[in-house]
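Pair request: fold both.
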Amino acid sequence: MQVFYFSFLIAEATSLLFFLWWVARRIVMASVIRSLGITGISGYPLAVEVVVNLSPGDIKKRGAK
């Protein structure tokens, strides 16, 4: 029983570390994008537009600069 509980604690700690790493990475990427002033054609950060999946045709229609 103690072995199972110990392995459960290790799994929980690993999950927490992964989550904290993921959050830290998102914060760093957001601050880098903001500091460089990288924005897409609609004024939103470029990462937001990539997530929305704009096609090259959409970008041409909107008149990318």
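--- second member of the pair ---
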Amino acid sequence: MQFSQKLSFQPLRFSLVLLAPLALGQAPVKKLNDPSIVSMQKRRVFESWGEFSPYPKYLLGVQTNLAYATVWGMWSPQRNRTYREGRDLRPLGPSGEETQRQVLQREGEKSSLSLSLAADSLSQVSLKELSQVLPVTLKADPLYLLYYKLMLRPLKECPVEPFAPKDWDLNPSLNLELFKWEGRHLPLQEKLMVLKDRLELSENSLMKKGERLLLQHHLLLSFRKLKKEMHYAALTFSLAQRANQKLIEAKESSSSPDKYSRRSDKEIVQGILSYYKSKEL
């Protein structure tokens, strides 16, 4: 029976041992409210530089506060009086080290932000200028897509060596073999090669957008002028061929004997009479 009672009291003792620190921890904590310590805390941080308590108390012109005399007065150490009469030592004061550090940090942040904005603006301007000179952006230029690409397609597709009159948009009746044999196509061919090379240069080289469009417009006008020269060369060649053919026919007709030169006088008179008789009828 006694052994069972001892066992029943052991859990109770163990629980009391565990609850004792908790009960002690909930005891009220006394706060120390010393005005001198509070003033020192204010001076140490940012609130105010002053309130050098304890303050003096005078009785008949004599300072009677022993605490003031030992802290700030005649019995205090020299460093206390130097501290009280010296400059503002607050870290967060108007001239404090922490205030200066924060000001420098803010200025550094502002300068870094302005530099980053300037760098971003420079990079954007550089990318914009680069996009203006890259030939890849030409494929997305509305003016090129809607006008110059269509107008310059005949120049790009025009063959340097024509094999038929339609290759250079010439008259189908043109004798192209004789035209090429006489070498009339060589100056036109050289101009066409120059225009095609310049067109390829305008589409694949680094160039400003305005310069590229001006060059393509100049190529368009030059190609139109070259087409006129081609037609004029073909026309002059055709006229020369016709003149040569007429000259050959005239030479052949002059070399052959005239059928009227072999008639007698009687035949000539009969021919004249029959001619007028037929006109009267």
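Observation on the second member. The longest strand covers residues 58-59.
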